[in-house]
Every structure is written in structure tokens, then in C-alpha cells.
Amino acid sequence: MNARDWSASPRNWVTTLMFALTALVAVVGVPWYGIVHGYSAAAWVWFAVILSANELAITCGYHRLFAHVTYEAHPALRLVYLLFGAMALQNSALVWSAGHRIHHRYIDDPQRDPYCARRGFWFSHIGWMLRNYPSGEPDLGTVRELQHDRLVMWQHRHYLAIALSMNLGVPLLLGWAEGDVVGFLLLAGVLRLVVSHHLTFCINSLAHMIGSRPYTEDNTARDNAVVALLTFGEGYHNFHHMFAHDYRNGVRWWQWDPSKWFINLMHWVGLARNLKSVPWFRIQRAILETQFRRAERQLAQSGDRAKLEHLRQRVAEEYASFTAAVTAWSQLREQWLQSTRRAVAERWERSILQMRLKELEHGLRLQYRRMRLLQAQLA
């Protein structure tokens, strides 16, 4: 389909009016009421609490649980995700997951990626929802297992009723309890919804345009610490697109990822299990492969022939060391898997294998530092 056909896609008036009216109330109505009547501290507290609940329902529930199946959750936790996910007004978990899986499958393809960043900030942030674009049609064939999930299908069938009940009922009930119905509707209702929407939308737009790409340069996804701060950890998007089935986005201990911490908490209290994570060696391998690709480009662009040959030789030596480590790791990993299938009496053998795996991981960490120094010289 050409650009002209795309621009002729019919307007989605439901989403257009929803975004326009809620934004208008948030920009005009919320400040006006605050100036004239003021807001109580309780209204601001509940604004923050419900906003956090909505965001965690999307990040931990819709995204990491339903779309990517990075862990398993107790039915009670799944129900909470589905209720507050509906409150976030981002469609049912079934439709959301179908669209997101298509995004991962066809990332950066302007014709098939629903919120392709190559079509510009506006389109990837919100424009893709304002018209019925062909790429936005959800393919429910990608979520067949979710169609057998009773809770997911219950939310999908009754999505509108659940969404309206949560968005109106919760703020009204809290406002009635605190004696400030209008204030709660404006803050915990409208402003919370608008902020929640645009925080989530930043993952589709800013996290594909601004930031670093330490794990892969094969797509536009980027790691952005500021977006991570705003989106409960979802801003480490380059890692996520490289390792989509890892329950973590901020994989390092110092990276801001409240969604990861919440999932860990649920695991600790028994509401989540089978948390999937990528072996640290594979993560280091991805980082080094990206570094080697950059080094090759820098070598190709370098004009200093005397310096070039020396650095080219060093990069070649580092790459040979890297491939040897990867081969050794693959062999050890296979031995480790075989040993775990044997009797418990062979713990000693498994401990030896584990120690050798850790030695290989340590070697890759040292090589990562050497490659950073090499890249500094190439620059």
C-alpha cells in the first residue's frame, strides 16, 4: 500500500475524540479547578497510586506476562492486571498482546509494524491509533494460547463495561469517601488517564529514537534511562528487543526497573513463578558482537593507515578470542544440561562445570573492557 492509500485510511473517531477530550480536560479543566477550589492531599496521593497501578498492569501484566509470557502468575494477580489494565484504556489484553507481538515480528517495517518508529515521532507515539491503518489490524492468530485463557477472554468480552466501571467507579467511590468527588474525578480520573497514556506511548516513540544500542543495532529500539524512569523500567528497550522473553528490562542491578522488582516481589510471596531470564554469558555475547560491528565500521572509515593495521590486528585477535569463548561456552552449557539430567550424586561434576562457566563469563567481562579501550583509540 502506498503513502497516499495510507493517508486515506479512515479516521478512528472513538480514539480521536477520547484523546482530544481527555487532553482538553487535563490541560484546561484540571488547572482551573485547582485554582478555584484546590485539590486535597488525598486526591494527589490516589492519583499517584492509581497511575502506578495502571502502569504496572500494563508493564508487568499486558507486556511481560501476556504478550511475552516471561513468567507465570497466580489467577488472583492475573485478575488484578486485567482490571487495572482495562482502566488504562489501552484495549483488552488479547488485542494489546496481538498488536505487540506483530510489532516484535515486523519491527521497523512501515507496512506491517503497527507503531513503526521509522514513520516518525507523531505516528509511533499516538498517530497510529487515530486512523484505522492496515498495519494496526490485530492478528489474533498470534495469541492463540491467550484465547484459551478464561480470564483473558472474560476481560476481552466485557472490556468496555470493565473499562468504564474502573475509570468512573473507582474515582467516584474514592471521591465520595473523601468528600471531593469532582477533584478525584479530575485527578485520579482524567489527569491520571492522560499521563498514563503518554508515559506508555513514550516506549513506542522515544525509546525507538533517543538512546543507546548496546545489545543490537539491527533495529531502532534504544536503551533510554529517562524513559525507563518514566515508564517503570520499560525504557531499556534495546535489551528488551534483543531478549524479549526475559522478565527483566533493566538487567543490571543499578538500572531503574520497578516492574522487574514488582515481579520479583510477587515471586517471593508466591503469586508468580517460572521467571525467565537470559544467561549472563548470552548478554555479554550480544554486547561484544555489537562492539565488533562498530569496530569494523570505524576501521573501514579510518584514514590513518599506520595506526589502522595495528588496530585491525588487535580487533582480529580479540574476535578470535571471543569466538573461542563462545564455542567453549556452548560446549560447557550442553555438558551442564546433560549433567542436570543425571543423578544427584554427580553434584561435584556439575559444580566444576559451573565454575568453568563463570570463568568464561569473567573472561568476556574483561574483553568488554579491552574493546571499549580499542574503540576509544579507533575514535
Brief description of this entry?
This protein has helices at 3-7, 13-36, 41-67, 75-87, 93-105, 121-125, 150-157, 159-178, 181-204, 225-230, 237-242, 258-268, 280-301, 305-340, 347-378, and strands at 72-73, 272-273.
Topology of helices and strands:
Elements: H1 3-7, H2 13-36, H3 41-67, E1 72-73, H4 75-87, H5 93-105, H6 121-125, H7 150-157, H8 159-178, H9 181-204, H10 225-230, H11 237-242, H12 258-268, E2 272-273, H13 280-301, H14 305-340, H15 347-378
Antiparallel strand pairs: 1-2
Helix pairs in contact: 2-9, 3-4, 3-5, 3-9, 4-8, 8-9, 13-14, 13-15, 14-15
Characteristic key phrases:
mainly alpha; 15 helices; two-stranded antiparallel ribbon; 2 strands; 379 residues; single chain
Q: Strand order within the widest sheet?
A: 1-2
Strand segment tally:
2
Mean of residue pLDDT values: 86
- The span between the termini is 42 Å
Task: Describe the protein in words.
With 379 residues, this protein is an all-alpha fold. It has two domains: 3-273, no CATH class; 280-378. It has helices at residues 3-7, 13-36, 41-67, 75-87, 93-105, 121-125, 150-157, 159-178, 181-204, 225-230, 237-242, 258-268, 280-301, 305-340, 347-378; strands at 72-73, 272-273. It has a two-stranded antiparallel sheet with strand order 1-2. Helix 2 packs across helix 9. It is globular.
